[in-house]
């Protein structure tokens, strides 16, 4: 691992120390955005992992893959975005070369793992929708965990070579982070282009295309068949699978929209199609990749009722605990007033006051719903 002891491979550019005022507006936008991504991405992705782990109804094979994607996004928010934020603030690399190598490695590792996780999601959705009879046999919990482990091993093998002088992780001001230098070792560029870009994109798009064709055919059959009670019962689970597939398709589309500009620009630079990447293009394409790591929990919360209820239960837990402590005090107070006035009030009046107590309790509990 001679990169750690050699001269720092940092491409600071010749005028990066003298242009502190240049691109100031861009740096302000980057800084504010990165702060928001950290503040939302870390708790959001952690909650996704926590809910899948602790909620029985969410312990499905598909959600196991989703939680793995959340782990990759959480790693990006914990390790890479804070380093980039420091770089944006100083407008240059102020950390050591060791940190640069680690940042480049983790950035590549989590990117590759996110791509392969989405490919695994697409493949599992294909078997679930198009070949449901074989899905449970192929995607058992043990096999799914083995597939996830395999994607981590593959991502690790693709991210390690620059640490051993097969290409290098270098810093570029526009990216505000350390990234593999695709101009350094052409065979490595070819391998990355095929193994972690082209192949995952094929595995992501082709299954969803097949799913789309299947759903169109299923819709035609629905219009032809009479919608009897037995037919609705037979297709109820299929509709639920369609809803989950729609959610995951949105996740895939957001990821592709955020990462494709970054990947295309860097591959074009690596193959010599463009000699240098403009700073603003570098900055915005990297900014979109950070956005991708923080927005998935919001998609789950908006489009999946189970995740939405789970988020609400966790986030409202302190409020509900306070409500449970507050309610007995309110009941004792109102009950005391009721007891003092019982001698002068009728039984019907007592019932009305007890309804007030019940309504007060319901109001306290519903304040956090």
Short structural summary:
This protein has 369 residues and is mostly helical.
Note the main attributes of this structure.
369 residues; mainly alpha; globular; disordered C terminus; 76% helix
Write up this protein:
The chain is mostly helical and 369 residues long. It is 76% helix and 3% strand. The chain contains eleven helices and three strands; from the N terminus they run E-H-H-H-H-H-E-E-H-H-H-H-H-H. The chain has a three-stranded mixed beta sheet with strand order 1-2-3. Helix 2 (61-90) packs parallel to helix 5 (141-159). The longest helix has 42 residues, at 229-270.
Distance between the termini: 54 Å
Share of β-strand residues: under 5%
Helix content: over 70%
How many whole angstroms does the radius of gyration measure? 27 Å
Tell me the strand order in the biggest sheet. Answer: 1-2-3
């Amino acid at each position: 691992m001679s990169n750690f002891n050699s001269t720092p491979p940092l491409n600071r550019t010749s005028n990066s120390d003298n242009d502190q005022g240049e691109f100031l507006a861009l740096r302000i936008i980057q800084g504010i955005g990165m702060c928001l991504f950290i503040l939302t991405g870390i708790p959001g992705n952690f909650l996704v992992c926590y809910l899948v782990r602790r909620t029985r109804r969410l312990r499905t094979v598909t959600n196991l893959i989703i939680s793995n994607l959340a782990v990759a996004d959480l790693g990006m928010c914990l390790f890479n975005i804070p380093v980039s934020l420091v770089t944006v603030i100083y407008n240059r690399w102020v950390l050591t070369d060791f940190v640069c190598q680690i940042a480049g490695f983790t950035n590549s590792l989590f990117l590759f793992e996110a791509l392969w996780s989405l490919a695994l999601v697409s493949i599992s959705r294909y078997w679930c929708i198009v070949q449901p009879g074989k899905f449970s046999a192929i995607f058992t919990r043990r096999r799914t965990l083995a597939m996830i482990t395999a994607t981590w091993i593959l991502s690790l093998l693709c991210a390690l070579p620059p640490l051993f002088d097969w290409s290098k992780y270098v810093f570029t001001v526009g990216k505000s982070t350390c990234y593999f230098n695709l101009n350094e070792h052409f065979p490595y560029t070819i391998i990355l282009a095929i193994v972690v870009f082209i192949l995952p994109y094929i595995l992501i798009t082709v299954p969803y295309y097949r799913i789309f064709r299947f759903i169109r055919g299923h819709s035609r059959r629905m219009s032809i068949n009479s919608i009897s009670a037995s037919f609705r019962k037979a297709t109820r689970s299929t509709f639920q699978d369609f809803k989950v597939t729609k959610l995951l398709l949105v996740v895939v589309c957001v990821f592709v929209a955020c990462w494709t500009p970054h990947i295309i620009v860097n591959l074009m630079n690596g193959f010599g199609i463009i000699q240098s990447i403009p700073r603003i293009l570098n900055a915005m394409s990297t900014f979109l990749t950070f956005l991708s790591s923080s927005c998935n929990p919001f998609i789950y919360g908006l489009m999946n009722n189970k995740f939405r209820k789970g988020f609400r239960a966790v986030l409202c837990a302190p409020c509900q605990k306070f409500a449970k402590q507050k309610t007995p005090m309110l009941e004792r107070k109102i009950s005391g007033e009721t007891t003092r006035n019982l001698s002068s009030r009728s039984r019907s009046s007592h019932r009305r006051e007890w309804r007030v107590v019940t309504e007060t309790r319901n109001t306290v509990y519903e304040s956090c719903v």
